[in-house]
Amino acid sequence: MATRRLAQELGNVLREHRARAGLTQEELAALAKLHPTYVSLLERGKRNATLQAIWSIAAAIGVSPSRLIKDVEGRIKPS
User: Fold this and answer.
1) Among the residues of the chain, which ranges form H helices?
2) Is 8 helix (H, G, I), strand (E, B) or coil?
3) What is the spatial distance between Cα 62 and Cα 45, in angstroms, rounded to a whole number?
């Protein structure tokens, strides 16, 4: 599995959950105690998320970290 593909799909999932929560990137970053640029890079698949970042973002948008991972898993076909 290409790391870039995982990062892109996680970014898509994060963006969708953030939008459903009605948050801007800046609002999400503030709630998750992350830098807005980092949130932007994650959503665009340009950075790999740390486990701590996934945990913080999940708490900020009101979902479980496992929900985010399951959503990514549902988009990627096993090789």
Assistant:
1) 3-20, 25-32, 36-43, 51-61, 65-73
2) helix
3) 22
Backbone angles phi and psi of 20, in degrees to 5: -60, -35
Reduced to 3 states (helix: H, G, I; strand: E, B; else coil), residue 33 is coil
Residue 46 φ then ψ, to 5°: -90, -15
**What pLDDT was estimated at residue 79?**
61
Enter the pTM of the model: 0.91
- Dump the DSSP string for 37-52: HHHHHHHTTSSPPPHH
Q: Which of 70, 77, 68, 73 is nearest to 42 (CA)?
A: 68
User: Residue 67's closest CA among 5, 4, 21?
Assistant: 21
The CATH number for 3-73, chosen from 1.10.260.40, 3.30.70.60, 2.70.50.60, 1.10.600.10, is 1.10.260.40
